[in-house]
Structure formats: C-alpha cells, structure tokens
Amino acid sequence: MMRRRWLLLAGSFVPVCLVALPLLLDVRTAAEALPARLTDQEFWKLSSEASEPDGHFRSDNLLSNEQWLQYVLPDLVKTAKTGRAYLGVGPEQNFTYMVAVKPAIAFIIDIRRGNLDLQLLYKAIFEISPDRAEFVSRLFSRKKPQGLTEASSAAEIFEAYSGTDRNDDLYAETLKTVRDRLERTHSFALSEVDESGLEYVFNAFATYGPHLQYSSTGTGFYGGGRQPTYAELMTATDAEGVARSYLNSEENFRFLKDLEARNLVIPIVGNFAGPKAIRAVGQYLKDKGAIVSAFYLSNVEMYLQQDGSWGDFCASVATLPLDDTSTFIRSLRGGRYGLGFGLNSQLGRMAMEVESCRAPR
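Below the sequence we write its predicted structure tokens.
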C-alpha cells in the first residue's frame, strides 16, 4: 500500500522514485527489525546477559559535570540518523542526547552497577509520572508547587522548586512505588546490592534536590567550582541560546517516558575495554539489522588511554553495525563545542576512527 501511495504522489517523476524507493525501504526495514517493545523478561535478560562484573570509578557520577553538553547538538542532529540505536555512558546527559537523535532503542553501558541502579530509578519515575512537574517532584522528593502546567518552561519548573524542601513522606512513598514498579510490575530480579543502590542514589537526590552537583556526595571531586547543578543543566542552552535539555518540553519528556515504558532503554554494566558488554550489544543490533546512530563516550577514552586499553575498546566498537553517519560524542579539554574551560564536546566519525581495529575478514 505504501509503495502504491508513494508512486501516486511521485506522479510523473517515476524514474526518480524508482531510484529512491529502495533507499526508503532499506530504512523502513531496518527500523522494523528493532522491536516496538521488549517484554519485561527480554529487557532483564538482555541487561543481565550483556553485563560484566561490577567495576570501580572514582565518583558516584549521579549527574553530569559537562555544562556545555548541549553545544554539540545542532551539528549532531545534522549527521546522526533517527530511529536507530543509541549507546551511551553515565547518567542524565544521555536523555538530552536521546531526545535529539530520537533512537528506536538505547543502551547505557557503565562500569559501575550503581549507574544501572540509577537508570532503573529513572525508568520507574518516568513510568509513574504523567508530566515533567510530577517527574521533578518524584525525583527530588519535593511537593509539587502550584501553578505549573505542561506549558511551563524548564526554567519555570526549576525556579518553582528552588525553595522547596525535602518531603520525607513523599520520599518514602516514591521509594516504595519505585521498588514495587521494578520488582512486582516488571518482575525484575533485583539483588540486595541493587536494592541498596536504588536507595542510595534516591536518597542523594532527595537530600540535595535540584541543587545536586557532581561532587555533592563527596566522591566526585572532578570539575572544581564550575560544577553545574541539576537545575542548571536542565535550564542550559546551546551556543545559540536554544534550550534542548530533556526536561525543556513535554514533547521531550513524553518521548523518553514512552521509550522507557516500552523497555527500550537498557542499562548494562560494562567496562568499555571489557570483552563482553559492547560486543554483546553489537551482536544484538546486527541480529536485528540495526545501525548505531550515536555513541556518547563522555571522557572515558582518557582513562582507557592512560591504562593502555584503548585498543581493546576500539576493537569492540569495530564490531558494532556502523555506517558513515554513526557518530561519537566525546568530552575532552579543548573540544570544539564549549567555552574553552572544563570539558567540551567533540564529534567523531565512528566507522572511520575504528576502521584500523576491525578484525581481518
């Protein structure tokens, strides 16, 4: 039916449409190969079987310290394709990148199991929150102020919450709801470590509220006095003053809420230089005929280069299904996108950069 409709719309330009139609069908075929949703069992199995043993990082990393992370987005969306697979590392900055590239599925790979627990907390709160104002209320255990609507900007939402205090009743209620959502509704087999991890990260969000910073818990010393708060990250803009955070609009929020509800944001424990996690994701995507749109690396490559394991990472990335538009998003000092101090963003062409690491055929 779609082919007939397309040919009718093409009218007299039949030679053009005959050339373009296979390309259109290729895109649709790849997108349709990815699942519209994962069952709870598929989600947990994929997360568990792709994961590696829990590892160590020097900080809790409960939120980003990359205050210029939106600067890269105007150029990223010109290159990265929508409806594909997104890979990333770390906490909430992935959500802002995801609403930009609109993936059909996303994998968050982090060396710390604590990040998996954080992502499960986000998943549950996305699912139980009807809108952004309620989401912020639940995430930080603050009673929702009067006057907020779906049309409120992120700046207006966080301004309304700026003077609110932790509400212990809401904290206890939300924590119970989150646990019930994960363990009873979804039937995820959370370990005692996961239970403890959920409570730890949720308590940090409740304690510091929207003023939470990278080093608030005392373990994230990197970034000094310029560390942005959660509220500042959500109300930041790109270099042209355009606000693009995941909480900037209801449209952004609903995209993520829907993706989470369909079990299509999968957290995985994995060392970027490890033998399993990235390769397992790559095999899954190959089996589905999918292609990677973007891979957010933060500044993990710096640590891989310091310990001499970057080559292992490169070899694993080379097993991912890539094309010429697949894009690295990395953070580094001196990156092109930023204001020149702290971590700035940089884009890279994945296929070209890892070509030398591909195994001989």
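The first strand starts at residue 85 and ends at 88.
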